[in-house]
Amino acid sequence: MPVKYLLLVIAILFLSYLPVNAATVTLTGSSGGAWESATTWVSASIPAAGDDVLITGASFDAITISSSVTIASLTIAANQISLGSGTLSLGGIAIAAPVSAFSSSPAAPTVGQTVTFTDSTSNSPSSWVWSFGDGSTSTLQNPTHSYSSAGSYTVTLIASNAGGSGSVSHTVTVAVAAPVAAFSSSTTTLSAGQSVTFTDASSNSPTSWAWNFGDGATSTAQNPSHSYTAAGSYTVTLTATNTGGSGSATGAITVSSYTYPLVDTGQLTSYNATTSITAPTSGQSFYGQDAQFSGLQPSYRNNGDGTISDLNTGLMWVSARGSKVTWDNAVSGAATNRTGGYSDWRMPTIKELYSLIDFNGKSASTDAQCIPYINTTYFEIIYGDVTGGRVIDGQDWSSTRYVSTTMGDNATIFGVNFIDGRIKGYPQYTPPNYTAGYTLYVRYVRGNSSYGVNDFVDHGDNTIIDQATGLMWAKQDSGSGMNWQDALAWVQTKKTANYLGYSDWRLPNAKELQSLVDYTRSPATTGSATINAMFSSTSITNEGGVADYPFYWTGTTHLDSGGAAYLAFGRALGWMKLGTATTYSLLDVHGAGAQRSDPKSGSVTSYYLGTDSSGNAVYGKGPQGDVIRINNYVRLVRDAR
Asked: In 3D, which of 192, 253, 182 has the Cα closest to residue 222?
């Protein structure tokens, strides 16, 4: 057999064990040449001894080429080598190890940013092992990784194939990302003297904060509080900083001159006469009730020292309940109270106390079923006699004395019942002897002594503005009574008629209407309704035949009764049996200025009481003896702010 054929056979035997990709074959060495096609290389001269032929990573070493024979062509295909002419002998065969290489993007990543690593290794690696320098690894060819801390990290790639492995390392420097500043505020509208709390929401872990409140005041606290002394619009700027840089954010705060801000009742559900309904639209029955108007939303802060700050009203409260005390002891106890380290605690007025009421409450026969009319996240509540069926006896004293008397001749103090959602007058001393003090709970307050003080201005056009609350009121009332559905409809007719030049009148909610009550006046002492003399109030003859003043509807549903809340601008009458009497007497039981509730529809004749001392049929007695009227009056309000 000729030598050249023997060599060819040997080459074929060696190559039959190797995967060959002809398209990647190269010939290197001192000899020149060129590829004639994808698989044919044509020599320009005699190859030199020791030249290499590379086939997809297979290196044919120790090639012996006859120096006297010119290789006209070398054809390399799968599992075969053919020589056009010349002599080629192959020594050992080895797979070329990878030459590792990679790149990363971005070149200068920040903490938390995703870094993509791209393999660019030669010699066809079949596996990859990455070490990112922070203890994390990957076996993907092109992995991604993020770093949780700033610093310099040595990233190493080891790429391998059957011929071995190659390693390469690069340093990735991770910087701290500059903060993206952001913040929220407990309110964006407040009155002068009130406090607002700002809460940092910046990302990328700032380490310092610089606040500018827009009125010349600054702070470096993360979550500061601030009070504005003057009305106006202010731009609040937060600059958050860390080692990576800083970022800024701004927000707007509007400060009004209103010293008596009215917090919303919290009622979000609409109701018809008996049950909850989908919020009605304009023109539909029951449109225009409390839930359809969003006011100043409640906002409290637990100060961690037994005190709660109302961020809307500027009032600070004692959170704990304590025990029931007489009114006299409640008054004297304020002077010695040192909760939170403060020495200026006082008894709240009825308007201050009522600012806390939340009309999502509903009482029940057991404390477990009760939903108090106050935010129990911040304010402690204690129920009444949970074994004797008087769970609702958890009332709070106010400092406001009724200028008349109740139950005939009882000296009376107004209070709020946060368990059944009412304002009533309570006896200062326990009947029938009136020697022992009547006991209720007390919740002391401090701050904003202007809260609850009205500042009425008569515009001379049958409208009156309260500059303390920012509300405009119609000077005249409706002039006649109507049920709750008709009251809502009557308001809509006034809107449509552009009454007094305005088309945005509404039925006031319970807190708005209570703000009108003047607790220095009463039918018995001033011969008037419990409202400032600037207002006109229709005089009525009450159920006892006595000159009096109406109950006025609010747009607030009272879930306890299923009716709607009203304010009594005349005597808050009730049917009671006095002493050993077997018949009912009609008395002012809760005082003019009380807030109670009435059924929204129906007839008083459905509430038969019995007979009075003269044998006359008596109607209109509620479950607790309260007089039921159903047809109550309306006073329009609109927002003048």
From this structure: 182
Q: What would the mean pLDDT of 555-564 be, rounded to a whole number?
A: 89
The pLDDT, as a whole number, for residue 39 is 43
Topology match between the domains 102-174 and 183-256: yes
- Of the candidates 190, 306, 202, 178, the one whose C-alpha atom is nearest the C-alpha of residue 252 is 190
Structure tokens at 575: 């049917």
Protein fold of 300-446: Mannose-Binding Protein A; Chain A (3.10.100)
Name the token pair of 496: 């449509």
Q: What is the pLDDT of residue 578?
A: 79
Q: Do the beta carbons of residue 585 and residue 406 sit within 8 Å?
A: no
| Residue 41 neighbours by CB distance under 10 Å | 18
| Tokens at 635, concatenated | 């006073």
- Cα angle vertex 554, ends 551, 525, to 5°? 35
Question: 476 and 505 in contact (C-beta within 8 Å)?
Answer: no
Class of the domain covering 102-174: mainly beta
Q: Which two tokens stand for residue 83?
A: 């020589």
Distances in Å between the alpha carbon of 271 and those of 107, 252, 274? 62, 35, 7
Number of C-beta neighbours around residue 300 at 10 A: 19
Give 342-377 pLDDT, tens digit per residue. 999 999 999 999 999 999 988 766 667 789 999 999
Question: To which CATH superfamily is domain 183-256 assigned?
Answer: Immunoglobulins (2.60.40.10)
pLDDT of residue 462: 98
Higher confidence at residue 53 or residue 575? 575
Q: Enter the tokens of residue 421.
A: 């959602």
- 548 CB-near residues (< 8 Å, 6+ apart): 523, 539, 540, 541, 542, 570, 571
- Contact predicate 490/634, CB 8 Å: yes
**Residue 328 burial by Cβ neighbours in a 10 Å radius (0-12, 13-18, 19+):** exposed
Residue 301, CB-side half-sphere exposure with 13 Å CA sphere: 20
> Cα–Cα distance between 404 and 411 in angstroms, integer?
8
CA distance linking residue 487 with residue 631, whole number of Å? 9
List phi, psi (to 5°) of 523: -60, -35
Residue 20 predicted with pLDDT over 60? no
Using CA atoms, how far apart are residues 432 and 428, in angstroms rounded to an integer?
A: 12
Report the distance separating Cα 338 and Cα 352, nearest Å.
20
Q: Is 397 exposed, middle or buried (0-12, 13-18, 19+ CB in 10 A)?
A: buried
Peptide bond into 206 cis (omega under 30): no
Domain ranges of the chain: 3-95, 102-174, 183-256, 300-446, 476-639
